[in-house]
Structure formats: structure tokens, C-alpha cells
Amino acid sequence: MNQWFEDFKTYLPKYLSTEGQTNLFAELSQFPSNIDGRLYTLRLLKQMNIFQGDGLASMWVSDLPSERIERTRVMVLSNTCDISFENKRLLGPRILYCPIISFPKYENLIRTQTSLPAEFNLASHLDAVRKQLTSSMFYLPRNDTLGEDAIAMLDRVNNCDAQAVDLDQLILNRLFTLSDYGFYLFLFKLSLHFTRIREGICRN
Description:
Oligomer: single chain
Largest sheet: 8 strands, antiparallel
Strand content: 15-25%
Helix content: 25-40%
Number of helices: 6
CATH topology: SH3 type barrels
Number of domains: 1
Number of strands: 8
Distance between the termini: 44 Å
Order of helices and strands: HHEEEEHHEEEHEH
Mean pLDDT: 84
Low-confidence stretches: none
CATH architecture: Roll
Radius of gyration: 18 Å
Shape: globular
């Protein structure tokens, strides 16, 4: 493990202490069998900041081309610095986020589809989602505030004025904050979903 750690150390966050890097590596080395409550931390829940990867209980979400807008649970995609209220902008910061949906409801929705490929296997698909193998979804294991397993839909990005979030209500409105391990997985999934340097397309 020590040699693996030294080789992998290049890809670990440099702001972490040696102990922090060691702990993060230990969690990553157990992936994907440890996708559980270890994705979350209690350490930052009372901080009056919005952190990248936070789950918020109620933000406005649209589903174009439908004109209906409703409040629902969301996961913050914007990086922490960009949406800091100390970061003054001429037009003001906007928060990017995606909706969080119930995992059981997602499973039921898939079961009702009538145009699935003949080779589609529901159990295998759901297992892939749970193991973070589906690039457009970030699986969220149940915690006390989520109340159920859930999925953040990375391909359904919404945004709103950061001033729409009442910091005084933030603690009550926060469903979770990611741990170092959860945050590392989240950034990896964002990178995989939004950027593919090896897309295989010649553009010149």
C-alpha cells in the first residue's frame, strides 16, 4: 500500500495534510465497496458557506421545454470560490446546480419504460449507478436528511442568482456536505461527464 500511495500521491489534493492524504487514499483504495455514509462529513454542516457538492433542500428547477418551474432538492455544481459571497462580481455570482431525484422513484420510472433495448438488464444498470459507473449521475447514499438513496442528475444543470440562497437558512436547507472522499469522487464524475480530452474527434 505504501508504494501505491507514493505513486498515487501526485493525484491527491495538495492542500491536505499527509494524514489527510493517507486517509483519502485509504478510502479510494476501497472504491466502490465503500459508497456509503463515508461520502459525507458533519464537520462543515454549520459553516455559513455554500460548498461545491453540497445538497440543498429547495432550489428552483426547470425542465425545458416545459414551462413549469418548481422547487426541489439539488446538488451544487459551482466551485466554492466562485459562489462565495465574498467574491464580488459586476453581475453577481450565479449558482449552478442539478436536481436530486429519489433512487426508488428512478427505479420505478425505468421499470415502466416500454422502449428499453432487448439486452437491457435493470439490476445491472442500478448496480452501475450505485457504483458511480454512470457518467451522467452521481449516486447519493441515504443519510438522515436525504431520507433515502438518491441520484444527482448531472446532465440537468440549472442556475440562479446566488442571492436567492438565504444564508441564515442555509444550515436548515443543507442536506449534506461531501467529505474529502466524497468530494474527490464528485470532482472525478464532473470531469468525466463534462470534459473528455480523448473524445476521438478530429476538429481541424
